[in-house]
Sequence to fold (152 residues):
Amino acid sequence: MLIDEMTVELIADGCHVPPELLNMVYKSKGADKIALVTDSMRAAGTDEKECLLGSLKNGQKALIEDGVAKLPDRSAFAGSIATMDRLVRTALAAGIPLCDSIKMVTSTPAKLLGLKSKGVLFPGNDADLVLFDRDITVSDVWVGGERLWHKA
Fold:
C-alpha cells in the first residue's frame, strides 16, 4: 500500500477482504489505484452448497457457506464465489461512494490491463454495460452495445 505507483487488486467479497479493511485501503490508495476482483470459481452466482476446485474430473471438493468456498475441514478459504455486483455492494457497505465503487470494478481494472476500449462509456468504446437497481441487483447486461440479458 505504500508504493504510490502500485495498483492493488482486492477480493472485496466481505470475506477475503472485510469492509473495514477495504475502507482503509481506499483511504490510502484511492479508487484510481484499487481494482476490485472476484477471483471467483465456477460456483459463483449459484446456489450450490459444494463444488469442485480445478478439474471436474480430479478437482478438490469445497464447501460453499457464509458467502465463500471453504476447504472441507473449514481450515481455510478455497476460493471466492463473489460476483461483481457483490463487490460493489461490499464497497458501498465500507462507506465508499458509488462512483468510486463502480470505478474500481470498471475503469481501474481496464486501465491496469491496458484495455483502452473497456471500462468507460465513450464514443468508439465497446459499449459493454451492466444496469442495476438501487439495491445493486443486476437487471440488464449489454456486450458490444447488444443487450444479452434482462431480468424478467
